[in-house]
Amino acid sequence: MKISKEQIELVNGRIEALLKANNFYGKKLKEAGIGKISTAEEFEQLPFSEKADLRDAYPLGLMTAPEEEIVRIHSSSGTTGKPVIIPYTAKDVDDWAIMFKRCYEIAGITNKDRIQITPGYGLWTAGIGFQNGAEKLGAMVIPMGPGNTEKQLQMMQDMESTVICATSSYALLLSEEIEKRGIKKNIKLKKGIIGSERWSDKMRKTIADSLGISLYDIYGLTEIYGPGIGINCDENTGMHYFDDYVYVEIIDPKTLKTVEDGEMGEIVITTLVKEGAPLIRYRTHDLSRIIPGKCPCGRSYPRLDTIMGRTDDMIKIHGVNVFPAQIEEILQQFPEVSSEYQIRISHLEGKDSMRLYVETNGTVDFKALADRLAEKVKSAIGFTPLVKVVEEGLLPRSEKKTKRVIDERYE
Ligand code: ZN
Q: Residue 339 Cα, ligand 1 centroid: separation in angstroms?
């Protein structure tokens, strides 16, 4: 989706503020001699922003509004090195709450609901984002924060919570505890808002069935307000995001060129009205695609597909970008294989080849299963892998993250 005239006008406002603040991005613009843009092509020439730029600006180098207008900071914890500090003005905090309120509304939540919030409060944007949006909506907040499952379940029953906000793993844990204790009859939950890390359909179904609730994926990242910039509706055809606050483009992470709607790539976000720390063309390294066309729900907000992983997971083979998540999706359609798999990419006789190892129990014809799987991969991704079926339990497993993709071309 090309950037619109109105959006370009908003970007120009941000460019002006960044030049004035003369922070890392202001300097980049100055060096490139850019003061204003007027077309989508010019927008696509603007330099990207990277997490490393944000880290280098620690502590307050991203501050773009005058200090007297900054009312709060949030921080994203890096696994390595310095964190990123994002300053917010009062308008930024309010804008975020407006978007979050829309998310609740899209999920069919109203001011009659009672929203139990289990993500953490503090430096990160999680808990407080859920809270501000809920208060804007006028719902009753039960601000639990994380952990203490005993107390969570007690409050959930006594307060008759109707909405649970959680990570997918915590929602799963709560659903298991509820089942174990046989207290489902006391639980009034109807909906769950789940932070949009990648989670399997199997897990989604387990949580939804055991609690008897509808689940919604919410998207966002600390660098861009926090959670609440997009959510899926009841049609479940991707997450609507708010194009009056953010402009989203998808790029090929290798060539850095913007791709067509519908094509998979890296999500790049530009904040259109943010004051405290506006970001232009921020590379999220999240993989997804823009879903073309209109949602059957009739809302005009554009849609992003579920997050399919991170750009670091991407493999390029025969000039096609492949994501492990795509292979996982295919495997899920075959009940006779386990969820373990291994992908090996090698370069043989001048050609890239992909071997896909899957496991099954001894009751099916290995050769026929391999053929059916290869056929399915070909139709979904565009080339035929060599599928090797092995006995269940033979592929490596580990407590931590199992390495499932082995690229022998660069070893
Ligand atoms: Zn919709």
A: 31
CA 297 to ligand 1 centroid distance, Å: 4
Question: What six digits make up the tokens of 39?
Answer: 């077309």
pLDDT at 295: 97
Q: Ligand 1 centroid to 184 CA: how many Å?
A: 30
- For residue 175, the CA-to-ligand 1 centroid distance in Å is 27
Provide CATH 3.40.50.12780 ranges for the chain. 89-310
Query: Distance, CA 236 to ligand 1 centroid (Å)?
Result: 7
Beginning with the edge strand found earlier in the chain, give each strand of the sheet holding 246-251 in spatial order.
Answer: 246-251, 265-271, 282-288
d(CA 109, CA 228): 14
Q: What would be the CATH architecture of the domain defined by 314-410?
A: 2-Layer Sandwich (3.30)
In 23-36, which positions are buried (b, 16+ CB within 10 angstroms) versus exposed (e)? bbbbebbeeeeeee
Range(s) of the chain covered by CATH 3.30.300.30: 314-410
Give the global pTM.
Answer: 0.86
DSSP for residue 150: H
Chain mean pLDDT for the chain: 92
Q: What spacing in Å lies between the alpha carbon of 218 and ligand 1's midpoint?
A: 13
pLDDT digits (tens, 9 = 90+) for 290-310: 999 999 999 999 999 988 888
Q: How far is the CA of 299 from the centre of ligand 1 (A)?
A: 6
Span from the CA of 384 to the centroid of ligand 1 (angstroms): 35
| Mean per-residue pLDDT, 316-322 | 81
List the structure tokens of 18.
């960044």
| CATH class of the domain at 89-310 | alpha beta
pLDDT tens sequence across 212-266: 999 999 999 999 999 999 999 999 999 999 999 999 999 999 899 999 999 999 9
Give 402 Cα–ligand 1 centroid separation in angstroms: 35
Is the peptide bond preceding residue 385 cis, with omega within 30 degrees of 0?
no
- The number of C-alpha atoms within 13 Å of 255 and in the hemisphere containing its C-beta is 12
Q: Beta-carbon neighbour count of residue 382 at 10 Å?
A: 12
**CA of residue 306 to ligand 1 center, whole Å:** 13
Q: Tell how far the Cα of 235 is from the centroid of ligand 1, in angstroms.
A: 6
